[in-house]
Amino acid sequence: MELPKGQLGVSDFSLNVGFELPSYSVTYISTSELFGKKLVATRFSGRFKNATILKSYQDLKPGDYVVHEYNGIGQFIQVKTMETDGVHRDYLEIAYAGGDELYVPLDQFRLVRKYSGREGYAPKLSHLYSGDWEKKKAKIKSRVNDLADRLIALYGERAKVKGYAFSEDDELQKRFEDEFPYSLTTDQARSLEEIKKDMEKPYPMDRLLCGDVGFGKTEIAFRAAFKAIDNGKQVAMLAPTTLLARQHYEVAIERFQTFGVHIALLSRMVSAHEVKLILEGLGKGTIDFVIGTHKLLSKEVRFKNLGLLIVDEEQRFGVAQKEKIKEMKKDVDVLTLSATPIPRTLQMSLIGIRPVSTINTPPEARTPIQTYVTPYEDNVVYELIKRELARSGQVFFIHNTISTIYEIGSKISRHLPDAKVGVVHGQMEKEDIEDVMQKFYDGELNVLVATSIVENGIDVPNANMIIVEDADHFGLSQLYQIKGRVGRGDRVAYAYLMYKPHKKMNQDAVKRLKAIQDFTELGSGYKIAQRDLMIRGAGDILGPEQAGFIDSVGLDLYMQLLNEAIEEKKTGIKKAPPKSRTLFDIDAYIPKSYAIASDKIELYQDLENAKNEEELKKVASHMRDVYGKMPHQVELLILQKRINFLMEKEEFFKIEQMDAYVDILLSDSFTSVSHIAVDLFNALLPFMNEIKVNFVDKKVHVRLKRNKKDDWIDELYRILQTIDELYTKRKNEGDNIL
């Protein structure tokens, strides 16, 4: 950065302390020195700050299941270049039941998507031309319509309920937020703004906040809580376990300490005398903020003026508890927190029905978990635990067989005298599990031998190592969530995924372990567990009975059907089929000399995703950067896309392609512009040697001669541009439309 002498400048350096360079007459003052706040960036943060969701077409490999919107579920074989009458074209080769094959040309590429289903679920291949796929789709459309009706009715009822409109932020709210020592991420700031806007409306909020473990949902919830308390309302926060409730309580006590907020904890760990006092305080309004387990749902709990209910991981509550939560929700603002991601398409579908905010990026200070896949050896395990205990850390050891779990705990105790070992598994009483977890959280235990029961757990900042035995037996989303138990503090965390050294793993297990090792970036829960977790997330919102329908057609197509049903019911307008695209008889494809087959899929998907000229330019620029100068075939591919952009405009009706010429048919919108025919004739004068203009069936036809080379396509593009510029100019001039 160049800085003129005597001037100030602002940079995005992530440094904790400033420096001076006398020879350059430069002094740098850090954020912490200027504002007295901690700067949280670390040497790891730069690599992970842009962690985002992968594209739906990511990693499409031969053998993967795909869904064709009109032909059903098949298996992707390859991208195949075929030649017909001297014209090369790329096709997706897809295998179907009974040995049938389908070749999907480029113009139908958008109809094919990767099948997203539960891990380990193998969908049944569709039979081409049997009609079964259309019947299946019709059945699911019917169920999706019923679901859309229920969702819209639920929203309609809630919108009729009179709620409390919270006031806009005051100085006290700003002071509370300024006391937080870290900057919010862009996602956090956006989510907070969405929540506040909902709270300021005159009907009850019901918003879902999704974000990976450790992505800062709690701070956003606490800011919403403070807004409610600042408006004279009480806040209740529900957590699924005693330990999680206590953890939220301890964080809240520290966060709210300078603002005189009276906070209480209600769980089985609280004495009967304290419970009595808390119930009185809630009834009288002397307690502002109560955090608790399902005990908060009991009949004895009465609030003087409850304004906000925060529910953490609602899906982990039982059926009866969920019903009570529903009763509590009726006339208060509700914020539900979830670490399970939901599909972006579902989020869009629920706009105006169930508002969703998402936090997809980690706080800058979060460091990635160093993940290793390695054969299991007792001595290696003991050495790893010993090292972690030597730095006063704590260790999770995952052993998923209950019959031998105590034996494992005893072995660790015998070999490591410094290890204070606890054991938890799913057959223990809930209270006993929580007691052991409490001791681990408090540091009384430093090694916790557990089954996958700790998949959903608490934040133990001092636990920075997890060892998973027989990791190849776990699902991808399970491994990801188990791994998320560590790395919550400021130290680098380690995950060791171990398998039996002499055991031959099947291909799926190898893929799972490779995937979890490769994607150690924070936020990869939205990438790796795209199938399992998002289907689980969709089920949490839409109901578990929808899971079977999602499996039938894949997550993406299911969400498309739901989105269309909701949109149709909200607007009363049935979605019009998209304008058909023209695939010209030109050599427009990606030759293998330019990109390998696996890369071609991504490049075609990038081209498909480009929705306008600006986005297309970015795709083309990226292709040149990565693959070099474009061959003529790729330039034609991009030109074809540009022509289709123009053909989507209202002044064009369609293009008809013949052997010797191409007809451009203009729409009624074009011909209805006053006196535009004369202007059109003048605008097209430079092309008169190559074209004829006629008026047939009340439509303008522009006929372009085709030559044997591909240069006629450039002429076509220029003609379309000229017509578009003329139509746009005349419309902007405000000419009368007949």
Poorly predicted runs of 5 or more residues = 35-58, 519-528
Number of strands: 24
Based on helices, strands and strand pairing, what is the structural class? alpha/beta
**Main beta sheet:** 7 strands, parallel
Number of helices: 25
**Shape-level CATH architecture of the largest domain:** 3-Layer(aba) Sandwich
The CATH homologous superfamily of the largest domain corresponds to P-loop containing nucleotide triphosphate hydrolases
The overall pLDDT, averaged over residues, is: 82
Structurally, the number of domains stands at 4
Proportion of helical residues: 25-40%
CATH class of the largest domain: Alpha Beta
What Rg do the Cα atoms give?
A: 31 Å
Oligomer: single chain
The rough form would be described as globular
Write the layout of secondary structure elements.
Elements: E1 19-21, E2 26-28, H1 31-35, H2 45-48, E3 65-68, E4 72-84, E5 87-95, E6 101-105, E7 112-114, H3 132-160, H4 171-178, H5 186-199, E8 206-211, H6 217-230, E9 234-238, H7 242-256, E10 263-266, H8 272-284, E11 289-292, E12 306-312, H9 319-329, E13 333-338, H10 344-349, E14 356-359, E15 369-375, H11 378-390, E16 394-398, H12 402-415, E17 421-424, H13 430-442, E18 447-450, E19 463-468, H14 476-483, E20 493-499, H15 507-518, H16 525-528, H17 532-542, H18 547-553, H19 555-571, H20 597-609, H21 613-627, H22 632-647, E21 652-657, E22 661-666, H23 668-671, H24 676-683, E23 691-696, E24 699-705, H25 712-732
Parallel strand pairs: 8-13, 8-14, 9-11, 9-12, 10-11, 12-13, 15-20, 16-18, 16-19, 17-18, 19-20
Antiparallel strand pairs: 1-2, 3-4, 3-7, 4-5, 5-6, 21-22, 22-24, 23-24
Helix pairs in contact: 3-19, 4-6, 5-6, 18-19, 20-21, 22-25, 24-25
